[in-house]
Specification:
The chain is α/β, with parallel strands linked by helices. It is built from 11 helices and 8 strands. The strands form 2 sheets. Strands 2-1-3-4 form a 4-stranded parallel beta sheet. The radius of gyration is 19 Å and the shape is globular. The structure holds phosphoric acid mono(formamide)ester. It is an enzyme of class 2 (transferase).
Length: 294
Protein backbone atom coordinates (compact mmCIF):
# COMPACT_ATOMS: atom_id res chain seq x y z
CA UNK A 1 0.00 0.00 0.00
CA UNK A 2 1.01 3.62 -0.43
CA UNK A 3 0.54 3.68 3.38
CA UNK A 4 3.62 1.44 3.67
CA UNK A 5 5.84 4.13 2.09
CA UNK A 6 6.94 7.24 3.96
CA UNK A 7 7.19 10.57 2.16
CA UNK A 8 10.99 10.39 1.88
CA UNK A 9 10.82 6.94 0.25
CA UNK A 10 8.19 8.11 -2.22
CA UNK A 11 10.31 11.18 -3.06
CA UNK A 12 13.34 8.92 -3.64
CA UNK A 13 11.32 6.65 -5.96
CA UNK A 14 10.07 9.66 -7.95
CA UNK A 15 13.61 11.09 -8.23
CA UNK A 16 15.08 7.73 -9.23
CA UNK A 17 12.18 7.07 -11.60
CA UNK A 18 12.88 10.30 -13.46
CA UNK A 19 16.57 9.39 -13.62
CA UNK A 20 15.80 5.93 -15.03
CA UNK A 21 13.36 7.55 -17.49
CA UNK A 22 16.26 9.60 -18.92
CA UNK A 23 18.52 6.54 -18.86
CA UNK A 24 15.98 4.53 -20.86
CA UNK A 25 15.50 7.39 -23.34
CA UNK A 26 19.26 7.37 -23.97
CA UNK A 27 18.89 3.67 -24.81
CA UNK A 28 21.61 2.82 -22.31
CA UNK A 29 21.70 -0.85 -21.29
CA UNK A 30 24.86 -1.05 -19.19
CA UNK A 31 23.55 -1.25 -15.63
CA UNK A 32 23.90 -4.60 -13.90
CA UNK A 33 23.10 -3.77 -10.30
CA UNK A 34 20.65 -6.69 -10.01
CA UNK A 35 23.08 -9.22 -11.55
CA UNK A 36 22.55 -12.64 -9.99
CA UNK A 37 19.16 -11.77 -8.49
CA UNK A 38 15.92 -13.53 -9.40
CA UNK A 39 12.57 -11.74 -9.72
CA UNK A 40 9.34 -13.77 -9.96
CA UNK A 41 6.26 -12.25 -11.59
CA UNK A 42 3.06 -13.98 -10.44
CA UNK A 43 0.05 -12.43 -12.15
CA UNK A 44 -3.29 -14.05 -11.33
CA UNK A 45 -5.17 -11.36 -13.28
CA UNK A 46 -4.56 -10.13 -16.81
CA UNK A 47 -2.02 -7.39 -17.46
CA UNK A 48 -0.11 -5.84 -20.32
CA UNK A 49 1.52 -2.70 -18.87
CA UNK A 50 2.36 -3.80 -15.34
CA UNK A 51 3.58 -7.30 -16.16
CA UNK A 52 5.75 -6.32 -19.12
CA UNK A 53 7.14 -3.20 -17.47
CA UNK A 54 8.22 -5.20 -14.41
CA UNK A 55 9.83 -7.76 -16.73
CA UNK A 56 11.64 -5.07 -18.71
CA UNK A 57 12.61 -3.15 -15.56
CA UNK A 58 14.17 -6.23 -13.95
CA UNK A 59 15.92 -7.20 -17.20
CA UNK A 60 17.37 -3.71 -17.66
CA UNK A 61 18.95 -3.95 -14.21
CA UNK A 62 20.47 -7.36 -14.94
CA UNK A 63 18.13 -9.59 -12.91
CA UNK A 64 16.86 -12.96 -14.04
CA UNK A 65 13.10 -12.75 -14.47
CA UNK A 66 10.74 -15.69 -14.21
CA UNK A 67 7.09 -15.17 -15.06
CA UNK A 68 4.79 -17.76 -13.55
CA UNK A 69 2.36 -19.20 -16.11
CA UNK A 70 -0.66 -19.19 -13.81
CA UNK A 71 -2.85 -21.07 -16.31
CA UNK A 72 -0.24 -23.86 -16.43
CA UNK A 73 0.49 -23.83 -12.69
CA UNK A 74 -0.67 -26.13 -9.89
CA UNK A 75 -3.16 -23.44 -8.85
CA UNK A 76 -5.28 -25.12 -11.53
CA UNK A 77 -5.01 -28.41 -9.55
CA UNK A 78 -6.38 -26.68 -6.48
CA UNK A 79 -3.17 -25.58 -4.74
CA UNK A 80 -3.91 -22.68 -2.42
CA UNK A 81 -2.33 -19.25 -2.77
CA UNK A 82 -0.55 -19.73 0.58
CA UNK A 83 0.93 -23.05 -0.49
CA UNK A 84 1.93 -21.51 -3.82
CA UNK A 85 3.67 -18.71 -1.91
CA UNK A 86 5.52 -21.21 0.31
CA UNK A 87 6.59 -23.08 -2.82
CA UNK A 88 7.87 -19.94 -4.56
CA UNK A 89 9.66 -18.88 -1.38
CA UNK A 90 11.52 -22.20 -1.27
CA UNK A 91 13.03 -21.32 -4.66
CA UNK A 92 14.77 -18.35 -2.98
CA UNK A 93 13.71 -15.45 -5.21
CA UNK A 94 15.00 -11.97 -4.38
CA UNK A 95 11.67 -10.26 -5.11
CA UNK A 96 8.18 -11.33 -6.10
CA UNK A 97 5.70 -9.16 -7.97
CA UNK A 98 2.09 -10.25 -7.53
CA UNK A 99 -1.27 -9.24 -8.99
CA UNK A 100 -4.33 -10.97 -7.60
CA UNK A 101 -8.11 -10.51 -7.71
CA UNK A 102 -8.34 -10.81 -3.91
CA UNK A 103 -7.88 -7.52 -2.06
CA UNK A 104 -5.07 -7.98 0.45
CA UNK A 105 -3.53 -11.04 -1.25
CA UNK A 106 -0.03 -9.49 -1.66
CA UNK A 107 0.03 -8.45 2.02
CA UNK A 108 -1.09 -11.94 3.04
CA UNK A 109 1.60 -13.76 1.09
CA UNK A 110 4.25 -11.25 2.22
CA UNK A 111 3.91 -12.84 5.67
CA UNK A 112 5.06 -16.14 4.17
CA UNK A 113 7.92 -14.83 2.02
CA UNK A 114 11.52 -14.04 2.95
CA UNK A 115 11.93 -11.55 0.07
CA UNK A 116 10.23 -8.25 -0.78
CA UNK A 117 6.72 -8.62 -2.21
CA UNK A 118 5.48 -5.92 -4.59
CA UNK A 119 1.75 -5.36 -5.00
CA UNK A 120 1.03 -5.10 -8.74
CA UNK A 121 -2.69 -4.63 -8.09
CA UNK A 122 -4.90 -6.42 -5.55
CA UNK A 123 -8.59 -6.63 -6.34
CA UNK A 124 -10.24 -3.31 -5.64
CA UNK A 125 -7.56 -2.47 -3.05
CA UNK A 126 -4.47 -0.70 -4.31
CA UNK A 127 -2.06 -0.44 -7.22
CA UNK A 128 0.81 1.43 -5.57
CA UNK A 129 3.34 1.31 -8.41
CA UNK A 130 0.71 2.79 -10.75
CA UNK A 131 0.25 5.71 -8.33
CA UNK A 132 4.02 6.14 -8.11
CA UNK A 133 4.38 6.26 -11.89
CA UNK A 134 1.39 8.61 -12.16
CA UNK A 135 2.92 10.96 -9.59
CA UNK A 136 6.28 10.82 -11.37
CA UNK A 137 4.59 11.61 -14.70
CA UNK A 138 2.71 14.57 -13.21
CA UNK A 139 5.81 15.92 -11.46
CA UNK A 140 7.93 15.54 -14.59
CA UNK A 141 5.33 17.41 -16.66
CA UNK A 142 4.43 20.23 -14.25
CA UNK A 143 7.61 20.31 -12.14
CA UNK A 144 5.48 19.84 -8.99
CA UNK A 145 2.49 18.03 -7.51
CA UNK A 146 1.67 20.46 -4.73
CA UNK A 147 -1.21 22.80 -5.52
CA UNK A 148 -2.33 21.01 -8.69
CA UNK A 149 -6.05 20.37 -9.11
CA UNK A 150 -6.48 16.70 -10.03
CA UNK A 151 -9.86 15.31 -11.11
CA UNK A 152 -10.16 11.52 -10.76
CA UNK A 153 -13.19 10.39 -12.77
CA UNK A 154 -14.94 7.14 -13.66
CA UNK A 155 -15.27 3.82 -11.88
CA UNK A 156 -13.79 4.94 -8.56
CA UNK A 157 -15.42 2.22 -6.45
CA UNK A 158 -13.55 -0.59 -8.20
CA UNK A 159 -10.38 1.31 -8.96
CA UNK A 160 -7.27 0.29 -7.06
CA UNK A 161 -5.52 2.98 -9.12
CA UNK A 162 -7.83 5.65 -7.68
CA UNK A 163 -7.35 4.34 -4.14
CA UNK A 164 -3.54 4.50 -4.34
CA UNK A 165 -3.50 7.80 -6.21
CA UNK A 166 -5.87 9.44 -3.73
CA UNK A 167 -3.48 8.59 -0.89
CA UNK A 168 -0.29 9.58 -2.67
CA UNK A 169 -1.39 12.75 -4.43
CA UNK A 170 -3.17 14.09 -1.34
CA UNK A 171 -0.04 13.53 0.76
CA UNK A 172 2.01 15.48 -1.77
CA UNK A 173 -0.33 18.47 -1.72
CA UNK A 174 -2.59 18.01 -4.74
CA UNK A 175 -6.22 19.16 -4.53
CA UNK A 176 -8.34 16.17 -5.47
CA UNK A 177 -11.86 16.05 -6.90
CA UNK A 178 -13.75 12.83 -7.56
CA UNK A 179 -16.52 12.19 -10.10
CA UNK A 180 -18.10 8.78 -10.55
CA UNK A 181 -21.45 7.62 -11.91
CA UNK A 182 -23.46 7.28 -8.66
CA UNK A 183 -23.34 3.43 -8.54
CA UNK A 184 -19.56 3.56 -8.97
CA UNK A 185 -18.80 6.22 -6.33
CA UNK A 186 -17.15 5.52 -2.95
CA UNK A 187 -19.62 5.80 -0.08
CA UNK A 188 -17.45 8.09 2.06
CA UNK A 189 -16.03 10.36 -0.66
CA UNK A 190 -17.64 13.61 -1.90
CA UNK A 191 -18.79 12.88 -5.45
CA UNK A 192 -19.03 15.70 -8.00
CA UNK A 193 -20.51 15.74 -11.47
CA UNK A 194 -17.79 15.26 -14.07
CA UNK A 195 -18.40 18.82 -15.31
CA UNK A 196 -17.68 20.24 -11.85
CA UNK A 197 -14.66 17.96 -11.32
CA UNK A 198 -13.05 18.94 -14.65
CA UNK A 199 -13.77 22.66 -14.21
CA UNK A 200 -10.38 24.39 -13.76
CA UNK A 201 -8.50 21.09 -13.31
CA UNK A 202 -4.81 20.75 -14.16
CA UNK A 203 -4.97 16.97 -14.47
CA UNK A 204 -7.98 14.89 -15.52
CA UNK A 205 -7.37 11.25 -14.67
CA UNK A 206 -9.96 8.96 -16.27
CA UNK A 207 -10.56 5.42 -15.03
CA UNK A 208 -11.71 2.34 -16.90
CA UNK A 209 -15.19 0.97 -16.28
CA UNK A 210 -14.35 -2.41 -14.76
CA UNK A 211 -17.18 -4.47 -16.15
CA UNK A 212 -15.48 -7.66 -14.90
CA UNK A 213 -16.05 -6.46 -11.31
CA UNK A 214 -19.63 -5.23 -11.88
CA UNK A 215 -22.49 -7.43 -10.72
CA UNK A 216 -25.11 -5.11 -12.14
CA UNK A 217 -25.44 -4.04 -15.76
CA UNK A 218 -24.81 -0.37 -16.35
CA UNK A 219 -27.60 -0.50 -18.90
CA UNK A 220 -26.11 2.24 -21.04
CA UNK A 221 -26.86 2.58 -24.71
CA UNK A 222 -23.85 3.06 -27.04
CA UNK A 223 -22.42 6.54 -26.43
CA UNK A 224 -24.62 7.20 -23.39
CA UNK A 225 -21.91 6.66 -20.79
CA UNK A 226 -19.48 8.99 -22.59
CA UNK A 227 -22.12 11.69 -22.89
CA UNK A 228 -23.17 11.47 -19.23
CA UNK A 229 -19.98 10.58 -17.37
CA UNK A 230 -17.06 10.41 -19.79
CA UNK A 231 -14.39 12.86 -20.93
CA UNK A 232 -15.47 14.47 -24.18
CA UNK A 233 -13.64 17.25 -26.03
CA UNK A 234 -16.32 19.73 -24.90
CA UNK A 235 -15.92 18.74 -21.28
CA UNK A 236 -12.14 18.87 -21.38
CA UNK A 237 -12.43 22.49 -22.59
CA UNK A 238 -13.61 23.35 -19.03
CA UNK A 239 -10.20 22.36 -17.62
CA UNK A 240 -7.23 24.74 -17.38
CA UNK A 241 -5.68 25.78 -20.67
CA UNK A 242 -2.56 23.69 -19.94
CA UNK A 243 -4.44 20.72 -18.49
CA UNK A 244 -3.43 17.16 -19.29
CA UNK A 245 -5.41 13.94 -19.50
CA UNK A 246 -4.21 10.71 -17.94
CA UNK A 247 -5.52 7.13 -17.86
CA UNK A 248 -3.85 4.05 -16.35
CA UNK A 249 -5.09 1.90 -19.23
CA UNK A 250 -6.46 -0.21 -20.69
CA UNK A 251 -8.82 2.35 -22.23
CA UNK A 252 -12.43 1.79 -23.23
CA UNK A 253 -12.40 4.22 -26.16
CA UNK A 254 -15.66 6.05 -26.59
CA UNK A 255 -16.86 4.91 -23.15
CA UNK A 256 -14.98 6.78 -20.39
CA UNK A 257 -12.88 8.85 -22.81
CA UNK A 258 -13.10 10.19 -26.34
CA UNK A 259 -10.39 8.46 -28.39
CA UNK A 260 -9.29 11.80 -29.88
CA UNK A 261 -8.36 13.06 -26.42
CA UNK A 262 -6.59 9.85 -25.49
CA UNK A 263 -4.38 10.27 -28.57
CA UNK A 264 -3.92 14.06 -28.28
CA UNK A 265 -0.25 14.88 -28.94
CA UNK A 266 -0.02 17.82 -26.51
CA UNK A 267 -2.68 17.11 -23.91
CA UNK A 268 -2.51 13.34 -23.36
CA UNK A 269 0.14 11.85 -21.04
CA UNK A 270 -1.17 8.30 -21.44
CA UNK A 271 1.77 6.95 -23.44
CA UNK A 272 4.18 8.85 -21.18
CA UNK A 273 2.63 7.05 -18.18
CA UNK A 274 3.54 3.69 -19.74
CA UNK A 275 7.10 4.83 -20.39
CA UNK A 276 7.41 6.13 -16.84
CA UNK A 277 6.07 2.79 -15.61
CA UNK A 278 9.23 0.98 -16.66
CA UNK A 279 11.41 3.65 -15.06
CA UNK A 280 9.55 3.79 -11.74
CA UNK A 281 9.53 -0.01 -11.51
CA UNK A 282 13.30 0.00 -12.05
CA UNK A 283 13.51 2.39 -9.10
CA UNK A 284 11.28 0.16 -6.95
CA UNK A 285 13.18 -3.04 -7.74
CA UNK A 286 16.51 -1.33 -7.09
CA UNK A 287 15.34 0.11 -3.76
CA UNK A 288 13.81 -3.15 -2.53
CA UNK A 289 16.77 -5.35 -3.44
CA UNK A 290 19.55 -2.94 -2.48
CA UNK A 291 20.83 -5.25 0.28
CA UNK A 292 20.66 -8.41 -1.84
CA UNK A 293 23.39 -7.80 -4.40
CA UNK A 294 26.62 -9.82 -4.46
N1 LIG B 1 -2.49 0.12 -15.61
C1 LIG B 1 -2.47 -1.23 -15.55
O1 LIG B 1 -2.38 -1.81 -14.46
O2 LIG B 1 -2.52 -1.84 -16.76
P1 LIG B 1 -2.40 -3.42 -16.97
O3 LIG B 1 -3.66 -4.04 -16.40
O4 LIG B 1 -2.27 -3.62 -18.46
O5 LIG B 1 -1.20 -3.89 -16.21
Amino acid sequence: SIDDLDDATIATILDEGERWFDYNRQRRRNDHRLDGLTVINAFFENSTRTLLSFEIAANRLGAQVVTMQVEMSSIKKGETLDDTARTLNAMRPDAIVIRHALTGAPANIARLMDCPVINAGDGTGEHPTQALLDAATIRQHFGRIEGLKVAICGDIRHSRVAHSNAKLLQRFGAELRFAAPPPLAEANVANLSIDDAVDGADVVMMLRIQRERLDEELGDAPGEFLARYGLTLDRFARANANAVVMHPGPINRGVEIDGTLADHAERSLIVRQVEMGVAVRMACLDLLTADRGS
